[in-house]
Specification:
about 325 residues, globular, three-stranded mixed β-sheet, alpha+beta, 7 helices, ten-stranded antiparallel β-sheet
């Protein structure tokens, strides 16, 4: 029977209706993507002059910036969504707010917007990289998050394939250093704090992981560092969540990253679906000043459309029960 599930970390509600996948055209799937054309790939090794000057890179053999020889490379976004602090004039940004401050509120969009090229290999997905390359890329994610430690919140995302918002196919991450805490993150911070107050300091994510491991029905895989599961309140089919075996507030701090298990989960998705699907991936880390929190990585394959119900109510409709998704991926 369909049921409404509430995600324990965010409070987000999802209708889980597995029978809908049986309707004509209802089974989720994806088509193989077109391969990357190396000649037109601005993120390919040897095309460093096609990006803004790099701000960080891993170069095992040394060498000058903006030249071949890198394994992971970081550049400013060519079309940034955020401007460096001091470049935006608040008075010129929105003159109408002076007359109607309660109706028209705005502020300069300041911060940092970086692109992290996950590897020199011309592939579309993290799943297509060797696991050692993914470990290196994730360590650079953490390094760049630490570089913006003074930001109110640092959001790292990966969009794979155009259907999920990727403007360039070559695998890459984006980092946004924000001067405010987004509402969704603030709500999670409040839920972590409220849970700690009720449960004598217990960590919400830590207790969730422990209980999921005990039940096993939504667990996909476990290694020495992390646990991979299909979340209880999965918004979309085959959604995955990776969390450390012991809760830690900030992903960017020293400690397990879960990179190997993340790569394993993405490979399982690709094997089951026949190719790496369009997906959105993000790292949820503690915002500035949060006393109670737990980092995790969320993976949302884009196998079904987000339509009127989701857009009008922020209520998701998931046609593959997470228990069923976990069972499939355990066997993949």
């Amino acid at each position: 029977m369909p049921e409404i599930r509430i995600d324990p970390l965010s409070g987000h509600k999802t209708i889980v209706a597995g029978e809908r996948s049986l309707r004509p055209g209802g089974a989720p799937g994806c088509s193989p993507p077109e391969p990357i054309d190396p000649a037109s790939d601005p993120f390919a090794e040897g095309h460093e002059d096609r990006t803004p000057p790099e701000i960080y890179a891993l170069r095992p053999a040394g060498g000058p910036p903006d030249a071949p020889g890198w394994t992971v490379r970081v550049v400013p976004n060519l079309y940034p969504a955020l401007s460096p602090a001091g470049e935006a004039d608040d008075a010129e940004l929105a003159p109408e707010r002076q007359a109607w401050p309660d109706l028209f509120t705005s502020q300069p969009a300041t911060g940092a917007h970086e692109v992290i090229i996950n590897g020199p290999q011309p592939v579309l997905s993290l799943a297509d990289l060797p696991v050692e390359q993914v470990l290196s890329a994730v360590e650079v994610w953490r390094e760049r998050m630490r570089a913006h430690a003074k930001a109110s919140y640092v959001q790292l995302i990966v969009n794979e394939r155009r259907e999920a918002g990727a403007s360039l196919p070559h695998t890459h991450a984006q980092l946004y250093a924000l001067n405010f805490v987004p509402a969704a993150v603030a709500r999670e911070r409040e839920r972590f704090a409220a849970y700690a107050n009720r449960m004598m300091g217990q960590n919400l994510l830590g207790d969730l992981v422990s209980e999921e491991v005990r039940r096993r029905e939504r667990i996909v895989a476990i290694d020495d560092e992390a646990v991979l599961m299909a979340p209880y309140g999965s918004r979309l089919p085959f959604q995955l969540m990776l969390a450390p075996r012991r809760p830690r507030g900030r992903f960017e701090e020293e400690g397990p990253s879960g990179a190997a298990l993340l790569h394993d989960g993405l490979r399982r998705l690709a094997r089951h679906l026949g190719s790496s699907p369009p997906l959105n991936l993000w790292v949820r880390t503690a915002p500035s000043g949060a006393e109670h929190f737990g980092w995790r990585i969320d993976v949302l394959p884009r196998l079904t459309h987000i339509a009127g119900l989701e857009l009008s109510t922020d209520l998701n409709l998931n046609i593959v029960a997470p228990e069923h998704a976990a069972a499939i991926l355990r066997e993949a």
